[in-house]
Each structure stands twice: as structure tokens, then as C-alpha cells.
Amino acid sequence: MKLYKNDLPDNVVFQNSVAIDTETMGLVTKRDRLCLVQMCSSDGDVHMVQILKDQCGKAVNLKRILKDSKIQKIFHFARFDVEILNYTFGIRVNNIYCTKIASKLVRTYTDKHGLKNLCKDMLGVDLSKQEQSSDWGRDSLSEEQLKYAAGDVIYLHQLKEKLDLMLEREGRLGLANRCFDHLQLIADLDLQDICPEELFVH
Ligand code: MN
Question: pLDDT for 110-126, tens place per residue?
Fold first, then answer.
């Protein structure tokens, strides 16, 4: 597990895919700043970038990866992460996969689609959510915070693999991909405070 400040070093590269999660000061994008971006390669290497206050302009390498359409970004509940990443860096995150949407599309026998539930049910892993509500804006993050933050990205590749097999089996892989393609639109609407769900109800 490696921790950097404000950007990834030049020598960190991701082939084909990267699992990503973010930690912020809260859930209101324009009020609550981005504090940490966690990334995990398909080999399980974790790289975390702490974004110090007003230093988001320095994340040149990070932005390049987020925009790169050849690298798939695997999130859990991509809608939130994509909105805050787009907003903070003034970019568009390209090539998105969301394990929560995949789960909702294919695990229709349950209404439990949280990351903790997926890890437990699909991988038999117990994920601690204890540090979820902690001060991610502090200059020096604690060991517990960093361990928790890494936990949110290290299982995403395995979950995607299992979810893709189920989506394939149930004939919903195409539908899933079309949903992922729409996350860009949803993020744009969210940023303008237009509720996407509202547009589709009478
Ligand atoms: Mn997280």
C-alpha cells in the first residue's frame, strides 16, 4: 500500500483497469471537498493519493488516468465518485464500471447491494466500515483510516469478475454496459442539481 500527496508519481501505470474509491468531507459535492483517491490495480497493488486543501490542480497524472478511455475504472456506486472527481478536477471520468449497478441488475433476489454485503455474500470477506465517518481532511491520516480506505478498493476487481459471470449467464451484460454509459449523463445532471430519477416519473 502506497500513499502519495496531491498526485500519483510518474511511474505508476494501470493496464486495462483500475478500481477506484474516494473519501470526502461529506456527501454534498459542492460543499464537501475530495480528500483521498484510492486506486487498486488488477494485481492488487494499492495506491492512494491524498488531496490536500486547494491542491487539486496538481493531480496531472491522476487526471490523465481518469480521462483515459482505454483504462476501465471500477467503482462501487460510481455515481458519487464520478461526480466528485469530475467536479474537483474539471474533467470527465471515462470508461466506468459500477459494481452496485451490476449487482442490482443481476442479484434481483436481494435488496442488499452495499459493498459490505457484496463482499460478504460473494467473496466471504468481512469488510469493516468503522472509519467511514471520520475526518478525511486531516493532514496526517491514521493507520486505521488508510486500512479502511484500501479495503474499499481491493475487492472490486474480484466482485466485477463474479458479477460479470452472472450478468453473462442472465443475458444482462449489454444492459449493464448501457447503464454504465449513462453514468456520465447522471453525473452531469447531479452537478446541476437536477434529479435524474425525477425526469422519468410522471
Ligand atoms: Mn470508501
Answer: 999 999 999 999 999 99
Query: Measured in angstroms, how far is the CA atom of residue 148 from the centroid of ligand 1?
Result: 8
Decide if 55 contacts 35 (C-beta within 8 A). no
Q: What is the DSSP letter of 171?
A: T
Residue 4 Cα to ligand 1 midpoint, Å, equals 17
List, as ranges, residues with CB under 5 A of the ion ligand 1: 21, 152
Q: How many CA atoms lie within 13 A of 3 on its CB side?
A: 15
Amino acid symbol at 190? D
CA of 182 to the centre of ligand 1 (A): 22
pLDDT score at 119? 97
Q: Please identify every stretch of the chain with a pLDDT value under 50, giving residue numbers as ranges.
A: none
Q: Give the distance (Å) from ligand 1 centre to CA of residue 173.
A: 26
CA torsion, ordered 179, 184, 186, 189, to nearest 10 deg: -160
**What is the C-alpha to C-alpha distance for residues 148 and 199, in angstroms, rounded to an integer?**
36
d(CA 201, ligand 1 centre) in Å: 31
CA 150–ligand 1 middle distance (angstroms): 8
Could you tell me the three cell numbers for 119? 463482499
Q: What is the DSSP letter of 9?
A: -
